[in-house]
Write a structure and sequence with these properties.
- The protein is mostly helical.
- Helix content is 75%, strand content 0%.
- It has helices at residues 7-30, 36-60, 69-90, 99-124, 132-153, 159-174, 190-214, 216-236, 241-261.
- The protein is globular and about 55 Å long.
- The termini are far apart.
Length: 269
Protein backbone atom coordinates (compact mmCIF):
# COMPACT_ATOMS: atom_id res chain seq x y z
CA UNK A 1 0.00 0.00 0.00
CA UNK A 2 1.43 3.34 -1.07
CA UNK A 3 2.20 6.00 1.52
CA UNK A 4 0.24 9.23 0.86
CA UNK A 5 2.27 12.16 -0.40
CA UNK A 6 3.38 14.45 2.41
CA UNK A 7 3.14 11.84 5.18
CA UNK A 8 6.82 12.11 6.14
CA UNK A 9 6.65 15.91 6.31
CA UNK A 10 3.52 15.82 8.45
CA UNK A 11 5.07 13.32 10.85
CA UNK A 12 8.26 15.38 11.21
CA UNK A 13 6.25 18.56 11.82
CA UNK A 14 4.16 16.77 14.43
CA UNK A 15 7.31 15.55 16.21
CA UNK A 16 8.79 19.05 16.09
CA UNK A 17 5.57 20.58 17.41
CA UNK A 18 5.37 18.24 20.39
CA UNK A 19 9.09 18.61 21.05
CA UNK A 20 8.57 22.37 21.24
CA UNK A 21 5.63 21.75 23.56
CA UNK A 22 7.85 19.60 25.76
CA UNK A 23 10.52 22.31 25.90
CA UNK A 24 7.91 24.90 26.91
CA UNK A 25 6.36 22.56 29.49
CA UNK A 26 9.66 21.60 31.13
CA UNK A 27 10.83 25.21 31.00
CA UNK A 28 7.71 26.53 32.70
CA UNK A 29 7.93 23.88 35.42
CA UNK A 30 11.63 23.92 36.20
CA UNK A 31 13.64 26.63 34.37
CA UNK A 32 11.94 29.69 35.86
CA UNK A 33 15.10 30.84 37.73
CA UNK A 34 18.05 32.00 35.53
CA UNK A 35 21.12 29.77 35.73
CA UNK A 36 23.69 28.26 33.40
CA UNK A 37 21.89 24.91 33.58
CA UNK A 38 18.53 26.48 32.71
CA UNK A 39 19.89 28.52 29.81
CA UNK A 40 21.88 25.56 28.49
CA UNK A 41 18.85 23.27 28.67
CA UNK A 42 16.65 25.85 26.96
CA UNK A 43 19.12 26.44 24.13
CA UNK A 44 19.65 22.71 23.70
CA UNK A 45 15.91 22.08 23.49
CA UNK A 46 15.36 24.89 20.99
CA UNK A 47 18.27 23.70 18.85
CA UNK A 48 16.73 20.21 18.77
CA UNK A 49 13.41 21.70 17.65
CA UNK A 50 15.25 23.88 15.12
CA UNK A 51 16.96 20.78 13.67
CA UNK A 52 13.60 19.07 13.26
CA UNK A 53 12.18 22.25 11.74
CA UNK A 54 14.99 22.43 9.16
CA UNK A 55 14.48 18.74 8.30
CA UNK A 56 10.76 19.34 7.88
CA UNK A 57 11.33 22.32 5.56
CA UNK A 58 13.84 20.33 3.50
CA UNK A 59 11.37 17.46 3.05
CA UNK A 60 8.57 19.87 2.15
CA UNK A 61 10.85 21.82 -0.20
CA UNK A 62 9.90 25.17 1.31
CA UNK A 63 12.63 27.78 1.82
CA UNK A 64 10.37 30.42 3.39
CA UNK A 65 11.19 31.58 6.92
CA UNK A 66 8.19 32.88 8.89
CA UNK A 67 8.41 36.32 10.44
CA UNK A 68 6.66 38.09 13.26
CA UNK A 69 6.24 41.79 14.22
CA UNK A 70 8.18 41.03 17.40
CA UNK A 71 11.30 40.54 15.30
CA UNK A 72 10.99 44.11 14.04
CA UNK A 73 10.41 45.37 17.58
CA UNK A 74 13.59 43.62 18.76
CA UNK A 75 15.73 44.96 15.91
CA UNK A 76 16.36 48.44 17.37
CA UNK A 77 17.47 47.37 20.89
CA UNK A 78 19.53 44.52 19.39
CA UNK A 79 21.39 46.95 17.12
CA UNK A 80 22.00 49.31 20.05
CA UNK A 81 23.41 46.46 22.15
CA UNK A 82 25.67 45.31 19.30
CA UNK A 83 27.03 48.84 18.74
CA UNK A 84 27.60 49.28 22.47
CA UNK A 85 29.39 45.93 22.68
CA UNK A 86 31.60 46.58 19.64
CA UNK A 87 32.51 50.05 20.90
CA UNK A 88 33.47 48.60 24.27
CA UNK A 89 35.65 45.94 22.63
CA UNK A 90 37.32 48.54 20.38
CA UNK A 91 38.19 50.72 23.40
CA UNK A 92 39.26 47.88 25.64
CA UNK A 93 42.83 49.25 25.86
CA UNK A 94 41.59 52.52 27.34
CA UNK A 95 38.68 51.09 29.35
CA UNK A 96 39.02 47.36 30.10
CA UNK A 97 35.86 45.46 29.29
CA UNK A 98 33.89 44.78 32.43
CA UNK A 99 30.38 44.11 33.54
CA UNK A 100 28.76 46.27 30.82
CA UNK A 101 30.22 44.17 27.97
CA UNK A 102 29.15 40.96 29.66
CA UNK A 103 25.63 42.33 30.08
CA UNK A 104 25.54 43.40 26.42
CA UNK A 105 26.59 39.93 25.28
CA UNK A 106 24.06 38.32 27.62
CA UNK A 107 21.21 40.48 26.34
CA UNK A 108 22.16 39.81 22.70
CA UNK A 109 22.15 36.09 23.47
CA UNK A 110 18.71 36.35 25.08
CA UNK A 111 17.38 38.28 22.08
CA UNK A 112 18.66 35.54 19.77
CA UNK A 113 17.03 32.80 21.85
CA UNK A 114 13.75 34.73 21.98
CA UNK A 115 13.82 35.35 18.21
CA UNK A 116 14.42 31.65 17.55
CA UNK A 117 11.58 30.63 19.87
CA UNK A 118 9.18 33.08 18.22
CA UNK A 119 10.15 31.89 14.74
CA UNK A 120 9.65 28.22 15.65
CA UNK A 121 6.31 28.93 17.31
CA UNK A 122 5.16 31.00 14.34
CA UNK A 123 6.06 28.20 11.92
CA UNK A 124 4.96 25.13 13.91
CA UNK A 125 1.80 26.74 15.33
CA UNK A 126 0.56 29.05 12.55
CA UNK A 127 -3.01 28.72 13.81
CA UNK A 128 -2.50 28.02 17.48
CA UNK A 129 -6.18 27.60 18.36
CA UNK A 130 -6.37 24.59 16.05
CA UNK A 131 -3.99 22.77 18.40
CA UNK A 132 -6.10 22.70 21.55
CA UNK A 133 -4.05 19.96 23.20
CA UNK A 134 -0.80 21.89 22.71
CA UNK A 135 -2.28 25.07 24.18
CA UNK A 136 -3.79 23.17 27.10
CA UNK A 137 -0.46 21.56 27.99
CA UNK A 138 1.48 24.82 27.65
CA UNK A 139 -1.11 26.87 29.56
CA UNK A 140 -1.29 24.31 32.36
CA UNK A 141 2.51 24.24 32.62
CA UNK A 142 2.64 28.05 32.84
CA UNK A 143 0.07 28.05 35.64
CA UNK A 144 1.54 25.16 37.62
CA UNK A 145 5.10 26.36 37.12
CA UNK A 146 4.41 29.86 38.44
CA UNK A 147 2.42 28.56 41.42
CA UNK A 148 5.07 25.98 42.28
CA UNK A 149 7.86 28.55 42.03
CA UNK A 150 6.05 30.98 44.34
CA UNK A 151 5.01 28.31 46.84
CA UNK A 152 8.20 26.27 47.00
CA UNK A 153 11.03 28.73 46.43
CA UNK A 154 9.91 32.15 47.77
CA UNK A 155 11.22 34.00 44.67
CA UNK A 156 11.12 37.42 46.36
CA UNK A 157 11.50 40.27 43.84
CA UNK A 158 10.38 38.15 40.87
CA UNK A 159 7.15 37.05 42.57
CA UNK A 160 5.07 39.53 40.55
CA UNK A 161 6.70 38.47 37.28
CA UNK A 162 5.97 34.81 38.01
CA UNK A 163 2.38 35.66 38.91
CA UNK A 164 1.98 37.56 35.63
CA UNK A 165 3.34 34.48 33.86
CA UNK A 166 0.65 32.43 35.60
CA UNK A 167 -2.08 34.85 34.50
CA UNK A 168 -0.75 34.62 30.93
CA UNK A 169 -0.96 30.84 31.29
CA UNK A 170 -4.63 31.17 32.24
CA UNK A 171 -5.23 33.07 29.00
CA UNK A 172 -3.42 30.36 27.02
CA UNK A 173 -5.40 27.68 28.88
CA UNK A 174 -8.73 29.27 27.98
CA UNK A 175 -7.91 30.43 24.44
CA UNK A 176 -8.96 27.31 22.45
CA UNK A 177 -12.26 26.68 24.23
CA UNK A 178 -14.57 28.95 22.22
CA UNK A 179 -12.75 28.99 18.90
CA UNK A 180 -13.13 26.85 15.82
CA UNK A 181 -10.86 23.84 16.07
CA UNK A 182 -10.48 24.24 19.83
CA UNK A 183 -12.51 21.98 22.09
CA UNK A 184 -14.38 20.81 18.98
CA UNK A 185 -11.17 19.26 17.74
CA UNK A 186 -11.78 16.44 20.23
CA UNK A 187 -15.03 15.49 18.41
CA UNK A 188 -17.03 15.49 21.66
CA UNK A 189 -20.76 15.70 22.03
CA UNK A 190 -22.16 19.20 22.67
CA UNK A 191 -23.13 18.34 26.26
CA UNK A 192 -19.73 16.90 27.13
CA UNK A 193 -18.02 19.81 25.42
CA UNK A 194 -20.03 22.27 27.50
CA UNK A 195 -19.10 20.43 30.71
CA UNK A 196 -15.45 20.45 29.64
CA UNK A 197 -15.61 24.20 29.11
CA UNK A 198 -17.17 24.76 32.52
CA UNK A 199 -14.50 22.61 34.17
CA UNK A 200 -11.74 24.54 32.42
CA UNK A 201 -13.28 27.85 33.49
CA UNK A 202 -13.59 26.68 37.11
CA UNK A 203 -9.95 25.60 37.15
CA UNK A 204 -8.93 28.92 35.61
CA UNK A 205 -10.89 30.86 38.26
CA UNK A 206 -9.27 28.84 41.06
CA UNK A 207 -5.82 29.44 39.58
CA UNK A 208 -6.54 33.16 39.19
CA UNK A 209 -7.70 33.35 42.81
CA UNK A 210 -4.53 31.64 44.03
CA UNK A 211 -2.29 33.88 41.95
CA UNK A 212 -4.20 36.97 43.03
CA UNK A 213 -3.82 36.03 46.71
CA UNK A 214 -0.09 35.44 46.26
CA UNK A 215 0.53 38.63 44.26
CA UNK A 216 -2.25 41.26 44.43
CA UNK A 217 -0.27 43.77 42.37
CA UNK A 218 0.04 41.28 39.50
CA UNK A 219 -3.71 40.66 39.70
CA UNK A 220 -4.37 44.40 39.41
CA UNK A 221 -2.04 44.76 36.44
CA UNK A 222 -3.70 41.79 34.76
CA UNK A 223 -7.17 43.18 35.46
CA UNK A 224 -6.23 46.56 33.99
CA UNK A 225 -4.73 44.98 30.87
CA UNK A 226 -7.72 42.67 30.33
CA UNK A 227 -10.12 45.54 30.89
CA UNK A 228 -8.32 47.66 28.30
CA UNK A 229 -8.34 44.79 25.79
CA UNK A 230 -12.07 44.16 26.34
CA UNK A 231 -12.78 47.87 25.82
CA UNK A 232 -10.76 47.86 22.61
CA UNK A 233 -12.62 44.75 21.46
CA UNK A 234 -15.89 46.52 22.16
CA UNK A 235 -14.83 49.27 19.80
CA UNK A 236 -13.93 46.80 17.05
CA UNK A 237 -16.67 44.14 17.20
CA UNK A 238 -19.98 45.87 16.63
CA UNK A 239 -22.15 42.82 17.25
CA UNK A 240 -21.09 42.58 20.91
CA UNK A 241 -20.19 46.21 21.50
CA UNK A 242 -22.41 46.90 24.51
CA UNK A 243 -21.55 43.78 26.56
CA UNK A 244 -17.84 44.19 25.86
CA UNK A 245 -17.82 47.89 26.72
CA UNK A 246 -19.79 47.22 29.89
CA UNK A 247 -17.49 44.37 31.01
CA UNK A 248 -14.36 46.37 30.23
CA UNK A 249 -15.62 49.42 32.06
CA UNK A 250 -16.64 47.40 35.11
CA UNK A 251 -13.27 45.65 35.21
CA UNK A 252 -11.31 48.89 34.99
CA UNK A 253 -13.58 50.53 37.55
CA UNK A 254 -13.02 47.60 39.91
CA UNK A 255 -9.25 47.86 39.53
CA UNK A 256 -9.38 51.61 40.18
CA UNK A 257 -11.59 51.11 43.26
CA UNK A 258 -9.22 48.50 44.71
CA UNK A 259 -6.23 50.79 44.20
CA UNK A 260 -8.01 53.74 45.84
CA UNK A 261 -9.35 51.75 48.81
CA UNK A 262 -6.24 49.67 49.52
CA UNK A 263 -3.59 52.15 48.41
CA UNK A 264 -1.78 52.33 51.79
CA UNK A 265 -1.36 48.53 51.82
CA UNK A 266 -0.26 48.15 48.22
CA UNK A 267 3.45 47.35 47.88
CA UNK A 268 3.80 49.56 44.81
CA UNK A 269 1.81 52.52 46.22
Amino acid sequence: MAIPIGTTARQISRIARWTLTGVVTIGMLSWWWPSFEAWGSLVGGLLAVFTLWVLWRVVVGDRAVPGHPLHLAMAAPAVILVVHLVRGIANRHENPAGLSSAMDASMIFQFAVLALGVMLSQSLLPKATEHASVLSVCGGAMILGSLAAIFLADPGPVRSALALLGFAGIAVWLSPLWTRGGAGQLALSPGLRARLRRLCVVLAVLAAGALGALSPEAALVTGAVVGGIVLAAGGVFRGSRRPLLACGSLLLAGVAAVIVLWRPEMPFA
